[in-house]
Amino acid sequence: MADQMQRGVQDRAQANVHESYNVEALAQRLGVMAEEIRCAADKVGKNPAKITEYFRNKLTS
């Protein structure tokens, strides 16, 4: 039981780039295309906060 609870927290801390609804939701929130989310995840990892930061830095550069 404790194992399942820990896995849930870890799962929510990552964007599942293999599930289109997760990618689409994040892409819509950030105003970018889904493929850009996948490319960003390859560069910075699957953490949604890092992906968001990547696009904020990209827009201000």
Description of the molecule:
- This protein has 61 residues and is mainly alpha-helical.
- The N and C termini lie far apart (46 Å).
- Helices cover 75% and strands 0% of the residues.
- The protein has one domain (2-60).
- Helix 2 crosses helix 3 (34-44) and helix 3 crosses helix 4 (48-60).
Task: Give the topology.
Layout: H1 2-12, H2 20-30, H3 34-44, H4 48-60
Helix pairs in contact: 2-3, 3-4
Count of structural domains? 1
Shape category = globular
Poorly predicted residue ranges: none
The class by helix and strand makeup works out as: mainly alpha
Report the C-alpha radius of gyration, rounded: 13 Å
What is the distance, rounded to the nearest whole angstrom, between the alpha carbons of the first and last residues?
46 Å
Following the backbone from N to C, one meets helices and strands in this order, namely HHHH
* Number of DSSP helical runs: 4
State the helicity in percent bands.
over 70%
Largest sheet properties: none
Overall residue-averaged pLDDT value: 83
Proportion of residues in extended strands = under 5%
How many DSSP-defined strands? Answer: 0
